[in-house]
Design a protein that fits this description.
The relative contact order is 0.17. The chain has 184 residues and is of the alpha+beta class. It is 24% helix and 34% strand. The chain has one domain (29-70, 79-183): 3-Layer(aba) Sandwich (Aminopeptidase). The longest helix has 15 residues, at 125-139. β1 (2-9) and β2 form a beta hairpin. The chain is globular.
Amino acid sequence: MRYDSDKTAAQSSTCTAKCGENMKIVITNAVPADLDDIAALEAVCFPPAEAAEKESFKKRIDRFPESFFTAKADGKIIGVINGCVTNSNVFYDAMYHDDKEHVENGKNQTVFGLLVHPDYQKKGIAEALLNHMINVSRERGKQAVILTCKDKLIHYYEKFGFVNKGVSDSGHGGAVWYNMYLKL
């Protein structure tokens, strides 16, 4: 996979990546016009108890657009990564629901969700999105990227250098989540 970043403004960034089968994707900041497609993708990728509502995405784009990215192939949204900035070293459920948990100059970047349409999975798109978030976070002087994941994904995030910090206090969607921490 080739990854080229072109930071176009202090609050936004764009990159292109060549993923599996020579597919080119473009990663850009999400905009309000993307809401319907983002909500539809979330509904395909997550069970209802874990999926965010369209209104939640609207609040996230309004509150922290610099930390909300879409991956597009041929102009179609096929992947998303987003999260707020915080001073906390662990992820907690209130971050999902209350945009006031976003601390604009916080020390750590969170990842609320990393999703790729099932038709495009296992082609390097999630990797490109996560690397983009990590690189942008590093450029912005963040100390770490934090997230929670299910047991089956711990090994995936460890490939990027994340460290498993144990079972999270999160009860999101009734699932068991693990705290993952990547020092930048």
